[in-house]
Every structure is written in structure tokens, then in C-alpha cells.
TrEMBL record:
Residues 92-158 form the R3H domain. PANTHER family: PROTEIN JAG (PTHR35800), RNA-BINDING PROTEIN KHPB (PTHR35800:SF1). InterPro entries: KH_dom-like_a/b, KhpB, R3H_dom, R3H_dom_sf, R3H_KhpB. One of its GO terms (molecular function) is RNA binding. Pfam families: R3H. It comes from the Bacteria. This is R3H domain-containing protein.
Length: 158
């Protein structure tokens, strides 16, 4: 098993070399790995005072850093490591907002018995919405369109 402390050191070094100041990195074994022995999965939260540059518009910079860090870690450890990178809790706060958006859109779909199309969003954001509404038997979610304009349509099922 990969050591979380070693991952933390590598990520700290990566962001310090990228110019990030006042950095604190927290790593933990991901609860979402399902106990799969084929790979290690870690939740990583980087706290910094200059977060906006590293978050980017709608979290796009976080996604890019996550891809680069996965490559760095694979090269360092010789195996695929799943990481879920967050900066200043941006992704977790965004997930909360997306869940609320999903619940409101589902309510509108039920109320008006009409499809509700959400704005285009990244695959990771769509996954949050699909997951949030999956337990509702009277609601169906569908991704439609092509990237980067792919969106979710929420449908009421009577």
C-alpha cells in the first residue's frame, strides 16, 4: 500500500515549485475507493491563501493539476494512484451547490411535469447531479450533447 505521508510530500513539493505560498496539504485514504485492492485512492485537500489562480474558472485548473499529479505519482510509484484533488474545499463546496441545484431542478420537473435542462458542466459535476438524483424513482437524468456543451436533462417519470 502507498504511504499517504509520501504522497503528501510529493504534492507539497509540486505546488511549492509551482509558486504556491502558505500551503497546507491534507491527505487521507479515500472513502470512495470501495476497498478495491487494485489501486490506491486518496483525498487530497490543499489549503492556500492564493487559491483562485490554482482553482481556475469553474475548477478547471484543479482538474488539470489533478491529471498532472496522477502522472507524477504513477511515475514515482510505478502504479496508478487515484487522487481526488481539492483546493480550499472548492470541489466539496461546489458539490454541495450542485446537489442543491439538482434537487431544485427535480422539484421543478415534478411540479411542471416537464423536462428541465441544466447549464453545460464538466463530467465530474454531472456525476454529482446524476448521483444526487439516482435515488428518486420518479426522476430520470440524462446527459445530452457533446463536450464542452454537454448538459444534464432532468425528466419527470409519472
Amino acid at each position: 500500500m502507498i504511504d499517504a505521508e509520501k504522497i503528501k510530500e510529493i504534492i507539497e513539493e509540486f505546488f511549492v515549485k509551482s509558486g504556491m505560498e502558505n500551503i497546507e496539504v491534507r491527505t487521507s485514504l479515500s472513502a470512495g475507493d470501495g476497498g478495491n485492492p487494485k489501486y490506491s485512492a486518496f483525498d487530497i485537500n490543499v489549503m492556500t491563501s492564493d487559491a483562485s489562480l490554482y482553482i481556475g474558472e469553474k475548477g478547471r485548473s484543479i482538474e488539470a493539476f489533478e491529471r498532472v499529479l496522477k502522472t507524477v505519482l504513477k511515475k514515482k510509484f510505478g502504479e496508478f494512484i487515484v487522487i481526488h484533488l481539492d483546493i480550499n474545499n472548492y470541489r466539496s463546496l461546489r458539490a454541495d451547490d450542485l446537489k442543491e441545484l439538482a434537487r431544485k431542478a427535480a422539484h421543478r420537473a415534478r411540479l411542471y411535469k416537464n423536462d428541465v435542462a441544466l447549464e453545460p458542466m464538466a463530467a465530474s459535476d454531472r456525476r454529482v447531479v446524476h448521483s444526487e438524483l439516482s435515488a428518486h424513482p420518479d426522476i430520470k437524468t440524462e446527459s445530452m450533447g457533446e463536450e464542452p456543451r454537454r448538459r444534464i436533462v432532468i425528466k419527470y417519470i409519472p
